[in-house]
Amino acid sequence: MSADQSKTEPAKDGAETLSNLLKEDRTFPPPAEMAANANVTPELVARADADPEAFWAEQAKRLTWGTEPTQILDWSNPPFAKWFADGRLNAAHNALDRHVEAGHGDRIAFHFEGDRGDSRDITYAELTDEVCKAANALTELGVKAGDRVGIYMPMIPETIIAMLACARIGAPHMVVFAGFSADALASRITDCGVEVVITADGQFRRGEPTALKPAVDAACEQCPGVRSVLVVQRTGEKTEMVEGRDVWWHDVVDRQSSEHTPEMFDAEHPLYIMYTSGSTGKPKGILHTTGGYLVGTAFTHWASFDLKPETDVFWCAADVGWVTGHSYLVYAPLVNGATSVLYEGTPNSPHQGRWWEIVDKYKVSILYCAPTAIRTFMKWGHEIPAKYDLSSLRLLGSVGEPINPEAYIWFRTHIGRENCPIVDTWWQTETGMHLIAPMPGVAEAKPGSAQHAVPGVAVAVVDEEGREVANGEGGYLVVKKPWPAMLRTLWGDDQRYVDTYWSRFDGLYFAGDGAKLDEDGDIWLLGRVDDVMNVSGHRMSTTEIESALVSHDTVAEAAVVGASDPTTGQAIVAFVILRESATGREEDVVEELRRHVATEISPIAKPRQIMVVDELPKTRSGKIMRRLLRDIAENREVGDVSTLTDSTVMDQIAKGLKRG
Ligand code: WTA
């Protein structure tokens, strides 16, 4: 986009994706033993569909309430929902104390596996004590219920302790993925008015320490409102501490009492804010509240993964900095009293069999990960997992993007021994919980399709006018009724919440995804219909990256598209028009621009390719036609150019690229 122009046409692709997906037509019934003992039965599904509100009221009994709710859904002021509004509870008490009180204090909450092979088992009783200490420390630092706390941390136990300590005292946390830049951290801190940040000196990556604290220091320079920074010592590398602002976790937390009485909060008390990319440059602060969120995530964790907390070992391989980490690494597993694996490192360090070694070591029975990881393992070869004993696995979950049948079959064959159901879970930061997933033990699995709404949830595929499409047709994915873990609003911006999700179709939640129903009425997800890309399961906004590019003084205009990529799903491809000043040093500038995007947003936002062009294709109303740029990025013949102001532009771009 140019500095003054940010309008773009919606990207409606996906037809090709569907035809790829449809190549595999085998279906897989659940293994007989699982079907016989499954948590979810056809009877439960029928009951949930018949009366969703009564069903969710029943599910609310999974929690321990200080005051039992008598109300279920309050939809008197749509689209602002309240769930279980007169109930009171404490999230950390539900995740911890009540399990200890029930005699499960010795059960392992987390098998922590460090990047360098250091490991630590943490029981429910130990985790409860640690969280109480951290809650006391936060109180000493002046944090009160309602105050937002920033968390910028690696995948270590203290991160989970910090989140739960915040929840315990009613201070909503705002976790920023530690791969994000100082600028991205600063804008989030500012947007939700964070005064206290919890971080670490650094983290281990491929055996080496990498610093985190300097990014917090740089962010704080832009955020004078931050008065305290609590720093966990993870790497022990030399770290600068700002006098009067920074304190070490071991100095402040370790000396606290492990006694802490959890206060009960309203069910609608804010639990956390998580920023996610939208179709404009400014990230959206998704607000989740307590009661409904915990009910929805606990139920789906139990249902989608057929969780048996006494015997399963659950591993959600997502980073805690994303919603998957919040819902299915932290809150739901703990509320359900499960045993989980927490892994700090990367899949290929010190060797490409690391994940399978971990599955073998802890006898993981349920593994939840993203298709992009599976495709990477496919590239490395099935000989690698074959070296380990994976017989403990009984269910595999997938999240973040459609799982293409090739990856599905590989996962099923080489990891699941053809005996583990694969549960493809569709959901979003906004939805908080799974909304579409084939229930294990019930569904006949269909590779590539997420199939059905979870029990108690009603989704549909609609056309431009909001009418439900017939089987065999495609359109937009919507949710028809409020669900307990839904976002309540966007932090500080109720209007944007209404505009983004509830204005496209009357009374329906607009997810931003395209979808198609097959002849059996099963749902196939087709990717975003807005300017949001999905790169390795991470949401990226095209406009945000365009803004980063035009903020560099060599760039006059920029357009970004997501091109399909065999490993990452989509890859970022940028087209830039450079200013005169860059003439003659295009190659250097391109490298500089990639680095610039990494510092402005994150290394994961670095374009795979930047193409220098003289023109960008625009409609007469000035919108950039990304569809045409995507054709180029994917090496396809360029489509219909009749709406361009200048129909020769595409030839010029193509010629220029050949020249380059
Ligand atoms: C995409 C991640 C197809 C989708 C939990 C959605 C999926 C966006 C799937 C949300 C899936 C997520 N099949 N697409 N199973 N799961 N998506 O907020 O486009 O990071 O809108 O939440 O990821 O991404 P977010």
UniProtKB/TrEMBL annotation:
PROSITE patterns in the record: AMP_BINDING (PS00455)
Domain AMP-binding enzyme C-terminal: 544-623
Catalyzed reactions: acetate + ATP + CoA = acetyl-CoA + AMP + diphosphate
EC number(s) on file: 6.2.1.1
Keywords linked to the UniProt accession: Acetylation, ATP-binding, Ligase, Magnesium, Metal-binding, Nucleotide-binding
Pfam family, one: ACAS_N
Presence of the UniProt keyword ATP-binding in the record: yes
Residues where N6-acetyllysine is found: K623
Binding site for ATP: G400, E401, P402, D424, T425, W426, W427, Q428, T429, D513, R528, R539
Coiled-coil zones: none
Domain Acetyl-coenzyme A synthetase N-terminal: 43-95
HAMAP family: Ac_CoA_synth
Family: Belongs to the ATP-dependent AMP-binding enzyme family.
Protein name according to UniProt: Acetyl-coenzyme A synthetase
Organism of origin: Propioniferax innocua
Gene that encodes it: acsA
